[in-house]
Task: inverse folding
């Protein structure tokens, strides 16, 4: 069995978030799936401000919503200059057999993702 790389785990989280955003009726102005490059999604919906979505995928399914508050403040300043909203999507993905094991390619996994945190 082959373990997912950090980038592959991130891409899995991006796919989960992207699907939910499409179901919510948003169009993607830009998508960036490169690790540690933010925002991952820039959204458009007629009559609404631009939304920057930050995606962080972790193997912590207990509290995937946690983020670095200081880092987020810097990003909020950037968004305010663009008159944009900021949403955070913290996604926990863990091995379905044991959270102690890594996530493997083509093997079952749990997803912990409730909703977006509207930061700004």
Result:
């Amino acid at each position: 069995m082959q373990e997912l790389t950090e980038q592959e785990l991130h891409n899995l989280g991006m796919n989960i978030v992207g699907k939910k955003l499409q179901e919510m009726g948003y169009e993607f102005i830009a998508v960036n799936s490169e690790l540690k490059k933010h925002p991952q999604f820039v959204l458009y919906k007629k009559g609404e401000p631009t939304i920057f979505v930050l995606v962080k995928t972790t193997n912590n399914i207990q509290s995937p919503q946690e983020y670095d508050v200081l880092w987020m403040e810097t990003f909020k300043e950037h968004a305010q200059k663009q008159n944009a909203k900021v949403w955070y999507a913290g996604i926990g993905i863990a091995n379905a057999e044991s959270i102690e094991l890594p996530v493997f390619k083509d093997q079952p996994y749990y997803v912990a993702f409730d909703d977006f945190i509207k930061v700004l």
Summary: Helices lie at 6-23, 69-81. The chain has a mean pLDDT of 94.
